[in-house]
Amino acid sequence: MPRPTKCRRVQYSPDYLIFKPAGVPARQLQEIELTLDEFEAIRLADLEGLYHEDAARKMNVSRQTFGNILATAHMKIADMLVHGKALSLQGGNIMLKTERLFVCNDCKKRWSEKFGTERPHCCQSCGSEHISRIEL
Q1: Are 73 and 39 in contact (CB under 8 A)?
Q2: C-alpha torsion angle, residues 52, 53, 59, 60 (rounded to 10)
Q3: Total tally of structural domains belonging to the chain
């Protein structure tokens, strides 16, 4: 009996949930499901160029598990591209991060901002523009 799947941390929710070949109605296509944790693995490794160990830490999984998630995602994307299938993004055992954490480099105050809002321009406490985003 396999172990239960550990909840994976996802920092980014995709804007588009279905991808398909142009000119073919979706109802005529076979569909492949890419889970949101697989999508996050693709984003971290292939788009951001993170090492697997660093990306695994961001997703709250082991490096081996991250490699397995990424390999499965690559296989699904290749199948979609080669065989002209539709790809839908959904599901997975995930925990979506909803806030970003910032720190003022001058007064050391920390605060959070919701994802989807504009990056703060200055510290809420002292007004300094020397702020940085930090990982939760």
Answers
A1: yes
A2: 150
A3: 2
Candidates 3, 14, 32, 13; CA nearest to 95 is 13
Q: Give the chain's length.
A: 136
**How far is residue 65's CA from residue 60's CA, in Å, rounded to a whole number?**
10
The range of the structural domain enclosing residue 105 comes to: 99-134
Residues 102 and 120: their CA atoms lie apart, in Å, by 9
Q: What confidence tens digit (pLDDT) does each residue in 58-87 have?
A: 888 999 999 999 999 999 999 999 999 999
Q: What is the DSSP letter of 108?
A: -
Tell me, yes or no, if the pTM score tops 0.70: no
Q: Which long-range contacts (CB under 8 A, 24 or more apart) does 63-68 make?
A: 65/6, 66/41
Residue 110 forms part of a structural domain: yes
* Two structure tokens written together for 122: 């200055």
Q: Is 108 left (phi over 0), alpha (psi -120 to 50) or beta?
A: left
